[in-house]
Amino acid sequence: MNSGVLADSQIKQMIASGGIAASSPILNEQIQPASLDLRLGDRAYRVRASFLPGRRSTVAQRLDELTMHEIALTGGAVLEKGCVYVVPLMERVSLPQGMTAAASAKSSIGRLDLMTRVITDHGIEFDRVPEGYDGPLFAEICPQSFSVVAQPGQLLNQIIFRQGKTLLSDEDLRAVHARTPIVSGDPVISDGLGFSVDLKPASGDLVGYRAKRHSGVVDLSKLAHYDPAEYWEEVHTSNGRIILDPGAFYILVSREAIAIPPDCAAEMAPYLAMVGEFRVHYAGFFDPGFGFDAAGGSGSRGVLEVRCHEAPFVLEHGQVVGRLVYERMSELPQQLYGAAGISSNYQGQGLKLSKHFKAV
Predict the structure, then answer these.
(1) Residues 128-161: pLDDT tens digits?
(2) Three-state SS at 175
């Protein structure tokens, strides 16, 4: 197998060989061009605090110490804002030597400010599965802005599989851009592709949304259902800057349009803390084909999930707030993000809330 991020056909081979198994048959719609969506199991454990098992413990052993109560998810159950839950996932993995895996919240989940991370037995990092791991997967879930209703089988997390070294060097990334432009305008390439925030929209003065502190629950099964005004405050500016409030959660958008060519995948990496009192978080995956148009389209904007830290902070138009780390694919995927038959809710997007809310 070539080094790189595994493509959809290779993920299917892992399923067929038992490298990926599940308590319920894996569905075709879970398989994305370079990732696999993971499903919630049928129960959640409310725990006292977030944790990593550590090298000497399994998740079950830590749950014995930390569980406050157990919740059945069948039929739907409320996961309350500010509480921490651990949910066994339906999928488990058995990775060969030389292969690792990495997980992330799906885009719609990040836009709900729903912090969810995958943990493993004997794990010492969130969202990382070491080579040779053979065991179950668990999602740690902590709703931040909105309480949610969750059910078994729902897709909150996704996972990619890496064979060997996958990262593109800055020199390699410049060569990719020269061949197939990956960003509108001149690329800022340093340990990945830098991107900035758009606070001067082409029309109007709406630049983002801020989560309201007191709102109703969000049922994760209901799409295009909720009135955004009940959950979000619009953020407007006429001078290209906004002041971020400590503790507040914002949905903003990148100034640049981004494209992921078919032979690449990308991951949004947290930016250096020294740039300001905020973080663009919920690092997420971008499948091959995101924003890509073989005829030379304009790409898709990156939606930014931003939380301000201890002090108010002035965010300026064009300020660099994050970076995309590009990786090579092991082979070309059979289908690209945005293709017919694939759930691609954010192809060609601009500023956009999660799919649970009615269009603004």
Answers:
(1) 999 999 999 999 999 999 999 999 999 999 999 9
(2) helix
